[in-house]
Amino acid sequence: MEGRSEALTLVEIIDARDNQGAAMAARDWGYAQWGAGNLARTEHAAWFQQTFLKSPMLEAAVPVCLVALVEGAPAATACLVGDDGLGPPYDPIAGATPWIASVYTAPAFRRRGLAAHLVRACLDRLAAVSVDQVYLYTPDQQRLYANLGFEAVALARTRQGEEVTVMWRRVSP
Ligand SMILES: CC(C)(COP(=O)(O)OP(=O)(O)OC[C@H]1O[C@@H](n2cnc3c(N)ncnc32)[C@H](O)[C@@H]1OP(=O)(O)O)[C@@H](O)C(=O)NCCC(=O)NCCS
Q1: What totals of helices (H) and strands (E) does the chain contain, helices first?
Q2: Does 3 have pLDDT greater than 90?
Q3: Which architecture, in CATH terms, is 11-170?
Q4: Burial, 94: exposed, middle or buried (Cβ in 10 Å; 0-12, 13-18, 19+)?
């Protein structure tokens, strides 16, 4: 049986607005993982800046890009957005909002619970402002999210044609 990795210590979760290095790491991981091939790096950078770094609503839970620092260095990220781009019927107008998006852990830090920790931090942020439901979609990480209380609600396709599972949970257990 595969042994468990050591849990990480000295993990701090911050808002990307509070640390330039963390913001740039989250932006660049997002581009490498999901943006490249779909849009130019400069377009992605402008979107990231506008969405997560320039939001005037500093007290709002959404949008936000959270970054996990391990011993002070960026190691993983997860974001909350109003609309994660699936289109109807999953746009905010149909009530499917907010979304956990861009969950990413740097390869050296995987399988230590960082993604789970960040997803829980997103839920805490939503609970603090009394948002009672949250969505996400994934092509292949259904088990990770099911273990965090998400239920599959539908199959869908992204605008790039990738088949994904839409998942949902109540914010409060
Ligand atoms: C998917 C991804 C975000 C997971 O990040 P992670 O930080 O490794 O996630 P976690 O450590 O919380 O959980 C991953 C697995 O490790 C297990 N795990 C958690 N802590 C562990 C430990 N100390 N020892 C061993 N395994 C552990 C979890 O149970 C989970 O198991 P599962 O795959 O059977 O569900 C990461 O692999 C990644 O960035 N992939 C590329 C981008 C991507 O696919 N993002 C998701 C888009 S929906």
Answers
A1: 4, 7
A2: no
A3: 3-Layer(aba) Sandwich (3.40)
A4: exposed
Residues with CB under 6 A from ligand 1: 4-5, 7, 33, 76, 103-105, 110-116, 138, 141, 143-144, 147
The phi, psi pair for 148, rounded to 5°, reads -100, 15
Q: What is the pLDDT of residues 114-152, one digit of tens each?
A: 999 999 999 999 999 999 999 999 999 999 999 999 999
> Which of 6, 86, 109, 110 to probe ligand 1 with, by most ligand atoms within 8 A of CB?
110
Residue whose CA is at the smallest distance from ligand 1 atom 18: 111
| pLDDT tens-digit series, residues 14-44 | 999 999 999 999 999 999 999 888 889 999 9
User: Is the torsion defined by CA of 135, 141, 145, 150 positive or negative?
Assistant: positive
Q: Report cis status (omega within 30 of 0) of the bond before 89.
A: yes
Are 80 and 61 in contact, with CB atoms under 8 Å apart? yes
Burial of 85 (0-12, 13-18, 19+ CB in 10 A): middle
